[in-house]
Amino acid sequence: ILKTQLTTDPQDQPLVLVTLQALHDLSKTPDIRAIIKKRELTSTIKAFASTENSEQRKAAFGILAEIMDEKEINENPSEMTAIFVDQLKQLNIQEYNPNLDNTLSTLKGLMQHEEVKKEIIKQGGLENLVLFVRDGDPEKQSTNQLEDALEILWLSTFDNPDIVTSFQQDTKLTTRVHHILQHAKQHKNPTLEKAADGFIWKVEKEEKFKEQQQAEQERKKQEKKKRAQENGTSEMAEEEEEEEEEQYDLMISYSWADMDLAHRIFHHLTEKLGYKVWLDQEQMHGSTIEAMV
């Protein structure tokens, strides 16, 4: 249908839109996404990404976000990001908008690409998400929308201390996220709980944890020196023993739904940055972050 319906005939447009939206939904499933990639549909979908029909463009960019690799997406991150940020800017946070589900879901996927993440911040997308989470009517927000919005805000904090600081200074936002966390725990919604908990960890707890870790490392260092003096051994021997105990720099715990993203992060950290990473399918309950700590 998509290869034969590249026309401007108004009668064809509803069919084209439904087809694009269906393909977008299907592309979110890993097995089907792999099949779509093998069919090499990028050029066909790109044709719809440049049409004047905003809904078709949105669906097309959503598909491209799922099937394109890092290099392809980074060739034109601005245009791809703009259509979704524009949707956020038109949002009435006091009204329920079912179309927001796909917008947020796609943006969350795009956040794994550094250039797109920069564009989302540059184009003001975060400000609109903060308004949605902080000031939106809880009765008009679906749990999926809150979850995706919080995950986007959470992801934006990585390697961006300015964003962390801005969130720390917004006490109304952090208070609202704490309420969301408690509500998610009470209603046994683990994915929403994880998103809220992740945000709170990065904004409120990580810095304190790092300070505690540094203090603990200093304490161990002093104990090591003292032990070496008492035993008459060298500090080098103590360091070698310590290195054997600390085999990994970090652990990534993930669910099957996040498998593709987790493996891309794993390869980036190990192959490009040289970290030692323990990659483990998530089997923990409650707060994953605190369980890891």
From TrEMBL:
Give the source's domain of life in one word. Answer: Eukaryota
In which residue ranges is the amino acid composition biased (Acidic residues)? 236-245
Region listing for Disordered, in residue ranges: 211-245
Ranges of Basic and acidic residues compositional bias?
Answer: 211-221
Q: Where are the transmembrane segments?
A: none
Stored InterPro entries: ARM-like, ARM-type_fold, Toll_tir_struct_dom_sf
The record's PANTHER family line, in alphabetical order, gives:
ARMADILLO-TYPE FOLD-RELATED, TIR DOMAIN-CONTAINING PROTEIN
Can you say what this protein is called? Answer: Uncharacterized protein
Task: List the source organism.
Answer: Adineta ricciae
